[in-house]
Amino acid sequence: RYYAPAQKVYVGWDFHKRKLYVVVMRENGEVIEERKIENRDMLSLTDFLLGLREGTPVAIEATGNWYWLIDLLEEYGLKPYMAHPKNTKVIVVSKCKTDRIDAKVLADLLRTNFLPTAYIPSFKVRELRELLRTRIFLVREKTKIKNRIHSVLNKLGIFLDYSDIFGRRGREELRNLELGSPYREEINILLDLLEGIESEIAEVESILRRIEVERGWREDLRLLQTVPGIGWFSGLLILAEIGDINRFRSPKALCSYAGLVPSTYQSGERRWNGRITKEGSRWLRWVMVEAATRAVSIDDYYKSFYERLKKRKGKQVAKVAVARKMLVGIYYILKKKEPFKKGKGGG
Asked: If you average pLDDT over residues 50-62, what whole number do you get?
């Protein structure tokens, strides 16, 4: 079954973990095919994809497991569009919600050019993001293990006279402590886990450094590292989460993507701002707040801004404001390909 080469069709794809429902629609809105397919049934899935001509637009929902589907659609020469979950919901409000209706709505919005779309990063960017997030996961697990060791020592009333008990000498002391069972075994297990995770972190970082060089992001990364509080890893994470800076029409759009802009409420003529939206990329928001925390401790410019705002708004609001200010500067740095400058357009 192949559609006529001259016949343009639009595909709506309601996607779940185990199954999907597809609707194929003509330009006039006529539904010409509907099909439910199990995700494991690759024979039926490829049969359907082969029936679509190259460049056919396909609208899918933004879910947590969309990577493989985007790769598959691109492999078959199709044009995927990811529906923006929040904006699509605003347009389509229905009490009757089924897979068939969802797929039909997606196809219809795509056909009429009303589909609110979300950014689909390239394969290389997706790969980079995955490695960066793996490193974050490993570092957080490393912190948990260290905290657990501190907890065991506190239970036993043991205080080691080291600035860092996880340095070389500190670890030797931990290995040689005379502890009864099960504490001796527990400390040994935790230290072994800690060293294993540190080895894996080093391996991930080695891969990331090769990718950075191969993909030609060295110059952008160097520029970002001129910003106080941003190092090699945080700069790489910012680049991966932003993707193409040209997709943002303004610094405000970038800050909105990071969820660092305040929510706005209005009633009649009265208008006020609330907490930040926390929408968009949580990873970009997280790394910017982390960078802001470092910046206010090492840079007089950001520290002065932070201290002024802290007196009126409190620590957390001030820290978020620094993160937002830094992101505005990053927008211009990547746009103009210029290093960090204090003041307007540079932070």
From this structure: 90
Q: Whole-angstrom Cα distance, residue 245 to residue 251?
A: 10
Contact 66, 60 (CB under 8 A): yes
What sign does the dihedral 324-329-334-339 (CA atoms) show?
negative
Structure tokens at 341: 């400058």
**Geometric angle at alpha carbon 20, from 16 and 23, rounded to 5°:** 135
- Residues in Cβ contact with 297 at an 8 Å cutoff, skipping those fewer than 6 apart: 303
The reported pTM is 0.84
Q: Where are the beta strands (DSSP E) in the chain?
A: 9-15, 19-26, 31-38, 57-61, 79-83, 117-118, 262-267, 270-276
Residue 316 · residue 305 · CB < 8 Å: no
Residue 6 in this model has a pLDDT that exceeds 70: no
* d(C-alpha 12, C-alpha 100), whole Å: 9
Helical packing angle, 282-298 and 300-313, nearest 10°: 110
Distance CA 135, CA 48 (A): 38
Rounded Cα distance between 233 and 183, Å, is 36
Backbone angles phi, psi at 331, to 5 degrees: -55, -50
Amino acid at 262: P
Tokens for 269?
Answer: 């003529």
Contacts of 229 (CB under 8 A, 6+ apart): 291, 292, 293, 294, 295, 296, 298, 299, 302, 326
